[in-house]
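Mods, move this if it's the wrong board.
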Amino acid sequence: MRKTNRGSLANMFRRIHLANLKSEATGIPTDELLAQDRELRQSINKDAIENSERRKFLQQSGIAAGAVVGASAMPAAANVLNNGNRPNASQPSIAVIGAGAAGMRAAHRLKQYNLVADVFEGGDRLGGRMHSSDTAFSDHVVEWGGELISTEHTGLRNLCKQLNLQLEDVNKLPENMEETYLVGGQLYTEHDLDREWQGGLYELFKRDQQAAPWQPTWDYHTAEHVRLDWLTTEEYLNQAGYSSNHWTHKLMMTNVVSEYGLKDDCPALNLIYTLGWTNRGSGGLPLAGTDERFHIVGGNNKVIQAMADQIGHDRIQTGKRLVAVRGEAQGPYTLSFQDGSEATYERLVMALPVWKNRDVDWDPRILAGMAPEKRLALQNVAGGDNGKLQLEFSSRVFNQTRTINGQEVHQSAISYSDPDEFVTTWEANPASPSEKGVLVNYTGGVRGRNLGGNEIFGPAAASDVNRLLNDFDQIWPGAAAAYTGNAIVSNWYDNPLANGSFTSPRLGHYTSWWGALFEDSGNLLFAGEGTDRETWGFMEGGILSGERVATYLAQSI
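Not the wrong board. Structure tokens:
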């Protein structure tokens, strides 16, 4: 499997690529095929709306739709050990540090295995980077952090079924609408991007992905992997003939900022793996892209709350920030917390954002017992500099039709900018019946590191909002006039419990230590999205990593 991306730009490339292939086979012009694609998506979304209305009818009629989902789902403890008996009193003691997606799923899965774990969370809430709000805007549930779930994210989707949680279809590109690009002060369309893709971008990424296929690791890579791992994305584009003042160069750099949260020190492999991939031994090149189709009804933190209820709130403590770990390499491990308390455990699961493990004072004996590549990974793994601004509008002003570069464009809420500007936008929930619309600005790089506001999660700074409205008015005329005055910020870069968004490879990481965190051994285990082999960077990665370490512990005890 390949790395899937969280932005929509690669999905646009995927649609263009497939249209090109079909055009070659049928002789139908690419533009006509893209128009057919938009009509198909319009039909699919119409069906989704009808299904949503049916669910509402069933709920209003007193029919528990959740019961139907639950009846078809695998029981939460279907694969437990000990035939479903109470936890074995002789089990080793287990501590889980961090109550985000990974830590909570680890403790939850252990409970399903009839093993007890104590969860310690440094903050005052559960969920980590899964953090929802139903009060920031009157008509919308929004996400301060992780927002979208893709079709292939089966770990999280299956967990929702186990917990009787419903998913809503919030595909980010509704009906026949298109993306808009504001780059270098000029507007560009999907038609403009298609010309660039057919004019050489596709062949560039195809060639280099086949020469350096996904995914290299510290113990599996070639000389070409090394070259592209140490070549910056900007150098790569310049060498390919896309100079820094070319709008396509800027848009590609924006893409890596949206995907990895950084522009500087970004290896060329990041861009290549975003826009093209081949499996080992495969000569094909389907383009990367993930549909980001679903959201949990009521907010993504519903899955955290539901797991907490099943784990038992007496097993979860907040306000317990870990500062030091003492002990032998294989334990037992004495945990020291910021509040002065201590506790000792035989097994330890570290489920912090992986780079936050560096904030812990580790016993030298523990570090000495790690494989060299794992120590190197923990010393160097980094998070992306992403954040969010979300603005409310009195109407969906971003859904309008206008002429750009001679092309009639049915605009959606999806847009991209220069890499040092706002980066990208989408609508928080296109399926919402509200007349109001909430536009999500997912930013990164220099903007992500310099968000204003007096709170990590709270009202947005007026300077940030005004800058956005100026840009938005160029893309969607009338946007500023439709702004309600309500805007919020998610400042993950300055959040002391995260200091970043998600795992983000830097120069040289892939071929120096990448993959060392994917494997489990001993009694000290690392979970978190950055430790999942295929879906690092997503909520799915957190869930799967929690399941992985829980299964490892259950099998080793």
